[in-house]
Design brief:
4-stranded antiparallel β-sheet; mainly beta; globular; binds calcium ion
């Protein structure tokens, strides 16, 4: 009998030794280096939401999401929604951001709305005390043009010109043109339009999207990154021209082949449709560009660093991951507070246009180990995201990322959700 017991023990030891390590799977680490707390804010029906924003509201922090209407929630599990803008006029799917337009420390929502074949309107919405519905204000209307109609990205833009501050938003129109709109002295008037660039004049043959702002040139101004280009902010962006530079050739990429997708999808070039964020990823004091192939399966995550010996040339790219699904969510933040910026990437449920769906979308962390080396972790599985954003929650300065999942409106069997995750150090 003792031989039998000893044999069993040896067998168990051998089986354990043959198993793969429990903290490694498919090349990435399973055990997160930070505490992750998922939050299902709302489980909605078959409704399409293109954007979710974080807003300082009159009654505290809120998430607002825009689709055929605009809904808002407090930041908590299973929150009840408020319909702040009802449906019926057009779709509010074309970019959105929060901005304090009137300087009262309450954020307004800037959002695009399709205008029934007449182009796209840019609007701002103001919360009104003791009213459920928001007040609508008109910024501009952009006529239908060539390329994909509407706005894809809207971001706040701020700059000091001599002694005065100018404030407004930057928008990407038809995935080719960059404009910024300046808040006028009388905030009830339409905003002043400033053309930044038509990227097709700089070699953009196909769509460009994704928008991030940061001081790339190192002169204290907010430069812009859109798609595979960056635009250098002039001393006076109300009058001076912007200099546009190409940093990447990702837009030359051909589309992954799937037999079930329509031919026009296979013929579309998706490589310039990126999700973007900025940060000094290699610690040399200069801002780098982090990009994903936002709309396609078999997508890349890359870090672009400007070549100091040849700053006008293409930037040097370090590919840190491949073969992930439609990563239309990208946030750069130092999750583990080690003074190295990390990268959070989220996959969609039904990304791109007609690509096969993703049964198990993931939220990834690429932990920055320095020298452009990153360790990959899966932080969560099962919730797709689109246009994920970062917010810092008070009172504990907790890192919070959130998004709606943009299901595609032609998939009638799909439902969407609004979700978030908080990250904190493991005690
Ligand atoms: Ca305000
Ligand atoms: Ca750098
Ligand atoms: Ca870090």
């Amino acid at each position: 009998m003792s031989f039998y017991v000893a044999g069993m023990i040896l067998l168990i030891i051998w089986i354990k030794a043959c198993r793969p390590s429990t903290d490694k799977k498919n090349g990435f680490d399973l055990k997160s280096p930070v505490k992750v707390e998922p939050m299902l804010i709302s489980q909605l029906g078959p409704e399409h939401f293109g954007n979710a924003i974080f807003r300082r509201g009159m009654k505290g922090s809120r998430i607002a999401a825009s689709g055929s209407r605009i809904l808002e929630w407090p930041i908590q599990e299973s929150a009840s929604n408020t319909e702040v803008v009802p449906p019926g006029i057009g779709n509010y799917e074309n970019g959105a951001c929060a901005l304090d337009v009137n300087g009262d420390s309450i954020d307004e929502m800037i959002v695009g709305r399709s205008a029934n074949g007449q182009g796209t309107e840019l609007l701002w919405y103001e919360e009104v005390s003791d009213q459920i519905r928001w007040k609508e204000h008109f910024i501009t209307r952009i006529a239908k043009g060539r390329g994909e109609e509407g706005f894809h990205d809207i971001m706040p833009f701020e700059m000091k010109i001599q002694d005065r501050m100018v404030l407004g938003v930057v928008i990407v129109v038809n995935r080719k043109n960059l404009y910024w709109y300046q808040i006028p002295a009388d905030i009830n008037q339409p905003w002043e339009q400033h053309m930044i660039a038509d990227l097709s004049e700089y070699g953009a043959e196909c769509a460009q999207s994704g928008l991030a702002l940061g001081d790339i040139a190192g002169n204290g101004r907010q430069d812009l990154v859109c798609g595979n280009f960056w635009a250098e902010c002039p001393a006076d962006p109300t009058s001076d021209p912007w200099q546009v530079h190409r940093y990447s050739m990702w837009d030359r990429r051909t589309t992954p082949v799937f037999p079930e997708i329509p031919a026009w999808v296979g013929d579309t070039r998706f490589g310039g449709m990126n999700q973007l964020d900025l940060g000094d990823m290699d610690g040399d004091g200069k801002i780098d560009i982090v990009a994903t192939d936002a709309e396609i399966p078999d997508a890349r995550v890359g870090v672009f660093c400007r070549d100091t010996a040849d700053p006008g040339n293409l930037w040097n790219v370090t590919i840190i991951d491949t073969a992930i699904y439609c990563p239309h969510s990208l946030v750069v933040v130092d999750v583990n507070k080690d003074n190295r910026l990390d990268i959070i990437v989220g996959e969609m449920t039904a990304g791109g246009w007609w690509f096969p769906r993703n049964a198990n979308p993931k939220l990834y962390l690429y932990l920055n180990d320095g020298h452009l080396k990153f360790r990959k972790f899966v932080l969560h599985e099962g919730w797709g995201t689109h246009m994920m954003r970062l917010a810092i929650l008070q009172p504990d300065d907790k890192i919070f990322v959130f998004a709606a999942d943009e299901i595609q409106s032609w998939y009638e069997d799909m439902t969407t959700h609004v979700v978030g995750w908080t990250f904190s150090l493991i005690q």
